[in-house]
Amino acid sequence: MTPFSILLVGCGNMGNALLSRWREKCADDVRDIHIIDPRAADGIYPSLDALPTTAQVDVVVLAAKPQQLADILPAYRARFGADVLYVSIAAGKTLAFYAEHLGADAAVVRAMPNTPAMVGKGMTALCANSHVSDEQKERASLLMKAVGKTLWVEEAQMNAVTALSGSGPAYVFLFADALVKAGVSLGLTESDARMLALATLHGATHLAETSGENLTNLRQNVTSPGGTTEAALRVLMEGNVLEKLLEKALQEASNRAETLSK
Ligand SMILES: NC(=O)c1ccc[n+]([C@@H]2O[C@H](COP(=O)([O-])OP(=O)(O)OC[C@H]3O[C@@H](n4cnc5c(N)ncnc54)[C@H](OP(=O)(O)O)[C@@H]3O)[C@@H](O)[C@H]2O)c1
After folding, report:
1. Angle, vertex CA 174, rays to CA 170 and CA 261, nearest 5
2. Mean model confidence pLDDT for the chain
3. Of 47, 78, 99, 109, which has fewest CB within 10 angstroms of its CB?
4. If you measure from the C-alpha of residue 184 to the centroid of ligand 1, how many angstroms do you get, rounded to a whole number?
5. Has residue 42 got a pLDDT over 90?
6. What percentage of residues in the chain have a pLDDT greater than 70?
7. Are strands 122-128 and 85-88 parallel, antiparallel or unpaired?
8. Of all protein residues, whose CA lies closest to atom 32 belonging to ligand 1?
9. What is the Cβ-side half-sphere exposure of residue 130, based on CA atoms within 13 angstroms?
10. CA 64 to ligand 1: nearest atom
């Protein structure tokens, strides 16, 4: 990949997480990183006006709040040509929104990371408009792979992605919390129950990812007939309640994402 230069717009929680990983992992591919944030500090420009006109910019990464973008984008549209790639991590803003504010010929990738990106274990779904070249797609992938895994999808699937991996960490925290409480009710201390629950979630997901085995087989492998797991699963799987509940919950989240993106 030809080395390229980035302009990061918005250096809050997500912007900072991306920045530190780019510096750590993308040194071979990323030439310069310019940063714009109103909370200017050493090496951070307070606005686009302050960025030297000589600064090379190949990729603009938009990491400001979604509601700030309509005000921010016109200045970028005026400053940069159609050869610049925009990668936006703003939740809920559609490719049509960027076409409206950056021009119909702007190359735009919409990225939807989740909060584990903060610790380099994010899941980011990406979709691109028709102006994004293969090399620009590779660049967008590289930038988001710095904070975890990536998956390219069609824009029509973004609401489903938001419902699954975007909001998903909250479902996992809820489940983990319920496990901890159940452990405490059996006599464990809260800190022991927390350690047991989190290490079990981490280990089980790692096993599922690395073994390549399907999830049903993995579950059956730890379920001996007449054993303890079978006793618990009989309760958990009764009437498919959990499956139905999750289907309903994800549908609600997806509907909400659809409404918010309008
Ligand atoms: N946090 C997550 O887990 C997560 C997950 C998925 C997607 N996202 C998306 O990531 C984006 C950033 O979220 P965040 O949690 O990192 O928000 P954040 O911490 O508020 O960061 C946004 C930063 O952008 C700055 N900013 C405001 N106006 C600006 C401008 N004109 N030019 C440049 N920078 C400007 C803000 O400064 P001020 O504070 O001074 O306004 C702030 O430092 C959002 O669009 C969000 O939807 C976040």
Report:
1. 25
2. 96
3. 78
4. 38
5. no
6. 100
7. unpaired
8. 37
9. 3
10. 24
Asked if residue 193 lies in contact with residue 184, where contact means CB atoms within 8 angstroms, the answer is yes
> Got the DSSP string for the chain?
---EEEEEE--SHHHHHHHHHHHHH-TTTEEEEEEE-SS--TT-BSSGGGS-TT---SEEEE-S-GGGHHHHHHHHHHH--TTSEEEE--TT--HHHHHHHH-TT-EEEEEE--GGGGGT-EEEEEEE-TT--HHHHHHHHHHHHTTEEEEE--GGGHHHHIIIIITHHHHHHHHHHHHHHHHHHTT--HHHHHHHHHHHHHHHHHHHHHH---HHHHHHHT--TTSHHHHHHHHHTGGGHHHHHHHHHHHHHHHHHHHHT-
Q: Other CB atoms closer than 10 Å to residue 245's CB: what's the count? A: 10
Question: Does any ligand 1 atom lie closer than 6 A to the CB of residue 63?
Answer: yes
The structure's pTM equals 0.94
Distance of CA 213 to the CA centre of its chain: 25
